[in-house]
Structures are given as structure tokens and as C-alpha cells.
Design goal:
Layout (H helix, E strand, L loop, with lengths): L6 H19 L6 H6 L6 H7 L3 H24 L6 H14 L1 H9 L7 H30 L7 H15 L9 H17 L7 H21 L1
Length: 221
């Protein structure tokens, strides 16, 4: 077999095709052969040259999907000009302006039928986002006085799980109006903890994302 001069392009092609199939068919219903069929001439050997299994492809897809998010979180975490609370606010704003949010909103209706993808997202939250990014920011806020809590790990997990699972219409489907009610209730909870993270601009952006997700649900039906 001729040596592949562009392995990175091949990997990106595999990940793009795999993500689309995982979304359309579900992870469990997608086979390696399905991926091969969409790759326009690549062989099974070419896939196994880069990935040992479909599980490994899923992990690479997840890492690729969240790479931009990781870069953003690390940039905010390391910003010397902001205190802890300001960093959480910036993360909230930047996350909503990330183009990947629109992509994830279009994927949303499939998450409950893709337990592997949902589990991968939760694993990314618990194993990476919380300990590497969010908890250090909250602990910095405790030191600089902008955040008051005795439970930095627990608060970090609650923030990430509620925003990415409870407030994710991919996991708990609801009308845009109901999602906004949940969001405003979440805002009240946070303010009770001394965390004033949301403003009206963010509510408008979230409403846009919720309505985008709802349109995808109607398309599927």
C-alpha cells in the first residue's frame, strides 16, 4: 500500500464521517464498514492504521469536537487580568458565541439515542472540564474574594452538569419557553450562591440556541 502523504487529512476525514454517522444512525448502529462506505475509497486497513477500534474513533471524535472549548477554557483560566467570578462570566459569554454551540444544537435531538456520545460528553465534563478548568477558577475566586463557597469541587460539578445536561435540550427535551424558565430558575439558584453570571444578552443568545434545537426536533418528526 502506498504511503499516505497526508495522514492528518485522512484522520480528519475519518472523524468527520464518523461524527455524521454517529449523529444520524447512533453510535451503536454505526459499523466500521458504514464509515468505510462513506470515505470514498479508503480501505479498512487505512482506518485501522490510525484507530484500533470504533471506541477509539469515538474518543477521537469527542476530543476533536471539544478541542476549541478546551482552548477557550484554558485561555480564560490563565487570564491574569480577571478575578475568579469574572472568569466564570467570560466563560459563559464566550461559550455561547462559540460556533461549535450551533453545531451541537443541530446535533442535540440525537443525544438521548446516542448513549455513548452522551457518556463521552459527561466523561469529558467530570474528568477534564471540572478539575482542569472550572475548579481552579472557583478556587481562585475563593482566594480573591469574588466567589464564596466551601465546596469548590461540588460547585464546579453542579455548574457543569446542570448547564450541559439539565439545561441541554438534547438530554431533556422541552419547548424554548420551558428551557428559558429553567434557565431563569438556574440564574436564581446561582445568585443565591453569590454567582451573578447571566445578563439579558446571554438570555437572548440562549433562546436562539433553544429555538435552533427545537427546529431540529421538528425536522426529525
Amino acid at each position: 500500500m502506498a504511503r499516505n502523504k497526508y495522514p492528518e487529512e485522512t484522520i480528519n476525514q475519518i472523524l468527520t464521517v464518523a461524527l455524521n454517522l454517529f449523529i444520524q444512525k447512533g453510535y451503536e448502529q454505526t459499523s466500521i464498514q458504514d464509515i468505510i462506505n462513506e470515505l470514498g475509497g479508503l480501505t479498512k486497513g487505512a482506518i485501522y492504521h490510525h484507530f484500533k477500534s470504533k471506541e477509539e474513533i469515538l474518543q477521537a471524535v469527542t476530543d476533536h469536537l471539544f478541542q476549541g472549548v478546551d482552548d477557550m477554557l484554558s485561555g480564560v483560566r490563565d487570564d491574569k487580568e480577571l478575578n475568579g467570578l469574572e472568569k466564570l462570566r467570560k466563560i459563559s459569554h464566550v461559550s455561547l458565541d462559540n460556533p461549535a454551540q450551533d453545531e451541537l444544537a443541530s446535533v442535540a435531538p440525537n443525544l438521548l439515542r446516542n448513549p455513548k456520545m452522551l457518556a463521552a460528553q459527561i466523561g469529558n465534563i467530570i474528568d477534564k472540564a471540572v478539575p482542569i478548568y472550572i475548579q481552579p477558577i472557583i478556587e481562585e475566586g475563593m482566594r480573591d474574594g469574588s466567589i464564596r463557597t466551601d465546596y469548590p469541587r461540588e460547585l464546579s460539578e453542579v455548574l457543569m452538569i446542570l448547564t450541559n445536561i439539565w439545561l441541554n435540550p438534547a438530554v431533556i427535551q422541552a419547548s424554548p419557553e420551558m428551557m428559558l424558565r429553567k434557565l431563569r430558575f438556574f440564574d436564581e439558584i446561582l445568585k443565591g450562591l453569590g454567582l451573578d453570571l447571566f445578563d439579558e444578552q446571554m438570555f437572548l443568545r440562549l433562546e436562539e440556541l433553544f429555538r435552533s434545537s427545537a427546529r431540529e426536533v421538528r425536522k426529525e418528526k
